[in-house]
Design goal:
- It contains five helices and two strands.
- The chain is mainly alpha-helical.
- It folds into two domains: 42 residues; 72 residues, 10k-s Protein, Hypothetical Protein A, Chain A.
- A two-stranded parallel ribbon has the order 1-2.
- The relative contact order is 0.11.
Length: 130
């Protein structure tokens, strides 16, 4: 529309004229659509994806599943196992250094014994501590 006559926004338009707003009506509509689309994308991006709650029977987890991240981060299982055994003993303390070291021992054992159940591996490794 380079041949259009620009008219102040306060005056009515006739054929071949446009208001001097810097944008054509079509450009204004497109700009509004871009703003709406951008806002929608940002709104949906901000909403976290729904995740199913998963219940896990730790007594059935194999070492291969544990060290291979096939179910969850192995650290999550190691923390749970530590809490489970501490709870059985009535021990409410947490040795963070010991937890890290025991998780490393469990990981190493599980790499050598992938078909062993994690709970059996824990019993084998730490039976004297229980």
């Amino acid at each position: 529309m380079s041949g259009a006559v620009l008219v102040p926004a306060t005056e009515p338009l006739t054929s071949g004229q446009r208001h001097d707003l810097g944008k054509t009506p079509r450009e204004n509509v497109m700009m509004k659509l871009v703003v709406i689309a951008s806002g929608s994308i940002l709104a949906f991006a901000a909403v976290p994806a729904a995740q199913a709650q998963v219940m896990l029977d730790v007594s059935k987890v194999t070492c291969e599943q544990y060290y291979g991240y096939k179910i969850t981060n192995p650290q999550n299982i190691a923390i749970w196992v530590s809490g489970y055994y501490h709870g059985k003993r009535g021990d409410v303390t947490l040795d963070t250094q010991g937890l890290v070291e025991n998780a490393r021992k469990l990981r190493d054992y599980c790499r050598r014994n992938p078909q062993t159940l994690v709970m059996q591996a824990v019993e084998t490794l730490f039976a004297k501590e229980r």
